[in-house]
Design goal:
It is a single chain. This protein is α/β, with parallel strands linked by helices. It has a single domain, classed as Rossmann fold (3-Layer(aba) Sandwich), CATH 3.40.50. It contains six helices and nine strands, in the order βαβαββββαβαβαβα. A seven-stranded parallel β-sheet has the order 3-4-2-1-7-8-9, sandwiched between helices.
């Protein structure tokens, strides 16, 4: 399968997580990346500048009607929803979703509806449930889903909420996510190991975890 877009959502602790993931992607990474990192309406434009130090990919804030291109990382601007439509990327000032604008769910759900099985969704550290519904939509549309192992997240609420909402394809420690994206986008989808298909029971967001989640891929293989 040829993937057309990677969408990533993060909140509290997201900058450190994004540094690690983007830093693992080579300049030849063949799929555009769109990111929602929660930030206040009055945040400046520093995030793109800071992240650019850690990746050879070109990082910048998304503009309305941008065409997603390989080798590019598109950040949702502060105060705007970033979404996908048939013309490319779009920006919206619709009301916040789960108190967030930009909203991870808005990006993920629109990407799932447009790209279907050719989108990869990644949820990482954060303190809300944003992204859980969107990741479930990606899974429903046949896309590939990755969640940061909550044991490696600075704030585990967001990864746990996504794990409670859908059976994801991969639960990975932070330092393995970038490498997995490279493998997935380099050729046919890599299926989770048979040894790792039995996932531990994961509690609803906010509940204590029974123990660290294994570092290998998660529970099911994509169709």
């Amino acid at each position: 399968m040829t993937f057309r877009l990677v969408v990533v959502g993060a909140s509290f602790g997201g900058f450190e997580a994004l540094k690690v993931v983007l830093g693992a992607l080579p300049a030849t990474f063949p799929v555009p990346v769109a990111i929602v990192q929660h930030q206040g309406d009055r945040a400046g434009h520093e995030l793109a500048t800071l992240l650019q130090r850690y990746t050879p990919l070109r990082v910048g804030e998304a503009n309305d009607k941008d065409e997603p291109l390989a080798g590019r990382v598109y950040l949702a601007p502060a105060g705007y929803h970033l979404l996908v439509d048939e013309d490319g990327l779009a920006l919206s000032v619709d009301p916040p979703v789960l108190y967030a604008r930009p909203s991870i769910d808005v990006l993920f759900e629109s990407a799932a509806d447009v790209y279907g099985p050719t989108v990869i969704g990644v949820v990482m550290t954060g303190t809300s449930r944003d992204g859980a519904a969107g990741l479930a939509r990606i899974k429903q549309r046949g896309g590939t889903t990755i969640v940061q192992d909550p044991a490696t997240a600075l704030r585990r609420t967001m990864p746990e909420a996504s794990l409670a909402s859908t059976q994801v394809d991969w639960i990975l420690p932070l330092d393995a996510i970038g490498g997995r994206l490279v493998l997935l986008c380099a050729g046919p989808p890599v299926m989770p190991s048979a040894l790792d298909r039995a996932a531990p029971d994961l509690p609803v967001s906010g509940s204590p975890m029974p123990g660290p989640v294994g570092p290998g891929p998660c529970v099911t293989a994509s169709a």
